[in-house]
Amino acid sequence: MIERLRARIRKSLLANKDILVKKDALSRDQLQKTLEYIIRDSANIERIQLDRETKDKLLAELMNELISLGPLQDLMEDDSVTEIMVNGPFKVYVEKSGEMILTDVKFRDEAHLMHTIEKLISPSGRRIDESSPYVDFSFVDGSRINIIIPPLSLSGPVITIRKFSPNISTTEDLLRLNTYDKRMSDFLVAAIKAKLNIIFSGATGVGKTTTLNVLSSYISDQERIISIEDTAELRLMQEHVVRLETRQSNIEGKGEIAIRDLFRNSLRMRPDRIILGEIRGTEAFDLIQAISSGHEGSLAVIHSSSASDCVYRMEMMILMSGISLPSWVVRKNIANAIDIIVQMVQFDDGTRKITSITEVHDILSKEEIELVDLFIFDHKGYDDKGKVLGSFKACGKIPTFYDKFKLRQINLDQGIFKE
């Protein structure tokens, strides 16, 4: 009987999405009165007589669910948890220190999980239903959420939350975590100030966006920054920042605004810097063209496994944009536009490191782009406790763009490049 009533109440809440959207703006008393009305109305529809104790218990349960994220709240507040993965109502995994762990957290049923999904998604203004069964969005704190539901997911509703870490906000934090060493840090800070064009490359969850966020704090407050993202993750600290976010198509399949559309528009917005949250398609061509036409200091993220794979993926994306250029011309444009590729890896012990900082040279006689490592992480395996072994090393090469540091009056000792 009570379960039937709970189902009716959830149905009422999902039908009245205004409550989920506006709940954070309501006082506790206002929210309580609204829920009392929904409980009373639902009980009348189901013809259930409630005693005071049962009604108070239901009210407290609903208040807790609406104010918090129900079963997920404790995991969201646990700083040691970096990622939360909900595979249907009865299996919730987390990542801690790089290790995947099955928790004892469970939802009552699929309807309870869908109710939590509606609470997660409602502040974003996005939607999820059978006609649009997956969605990406982010919390105000920068945590990123992906949700996919049946019929696409055969495991029931699935939630993946990549939590934003407020503990990583400075280069000192990255040094403390041994993401790189002091020489690499000094070089990357100088590269940002010198307006080099930098691509942050790596697999999902290796820390590309976090590292970009930290280093972007060295962009001058005098510059106008345009950031373009699918899902807003960047937390830029400067005053003069314009944040652009793509838009999904509506229920009729119209109104989609893609990264490429926003990028083209951003060129008319007098940008000093353009930051792309992720290169994933034909916008790669627009980025290369923009840099070649004088928009220096661009920063972008790409999913690739190495510096050479990064170049190859960009080449493929440009060719897929429909332009009729020979491959060597495309490679020449990439080589002229991109200065360095910062490659990142997450190792088996959970640590995340910059494994190479690579200069993109001109193309060779065989029409291949020459890539020269400036710094690397020399991986030596793992110790008996499973901790990664190795050291950061300079490769002894002075980059061909070193004069750009002098041009921008940035003092960077050539000695940091010595082996």
Structure description:
- The chain has helices spanning 2-15, 17-22, 28-45, 52-67, 73-77, 110-121, 171-176, 182-193, 208-216, 259-266, 283-292, 307-319, 327-337, 403-407; strands at 81-87, 92-96, 99-102, 134-138, 144-148, 158-162, 198-202, 225-229, 241-245, 273-279, 299-303, 340-346, 352-363, 369-382, 388-394.
- It is of the alpha/beta class and 419 residues long.
- The protein folds into 3 domains: 1-67; 70-164, Beta-Lactamase (2-Layer Sandwich); 171-417, Rossmann fold, CATH 3.40.50.
- Strands 9-8-10-11-7-12-13-14-15 form a 9-stranded mixed sheet, sandwiched between helices.
- Helix 12 packs across helix 13 (327-337).
- The longest helix has 18 residues, at 28-45.
- The chain starts with a helix and ends in a 12-residue tail after the last helix.
- The model has no long low-confidence stretch (mean pLDDT 87).
- Shape descriptor reads elongated
Distance between the termini: 74 Å
Strand content: 15-25%
CATH architecture of the largest domain: 3-Layer(aba) Sandwich
Unreliable parts: none
- State the helicity in percent bands: 25-40%
Order of helices and strands: HHHHHEEEHEEEHHEHEEHEHEHHEEEEH
Count of DSSP H/I helices: 14
The chain-level mean pLDDT equals 87
CATH superfamily of the largest domain, by name, is: P-loop containing nucleotide triphosphate hydrolases
Briefly, what CATH class of the largest domain?
Alpha Beta
β-strand number: 15
Major sheet: 9 strands, mixed
User: Biggest sheet: strands side by side, in what order?
Assistant: 9-8-10-11-7-12-13-14-15
Tally of discrete structural domains: 3
- By CATH, the topology of the largest domain is Rossmann fold
Helix and strand content put the structural class at alpha/beta
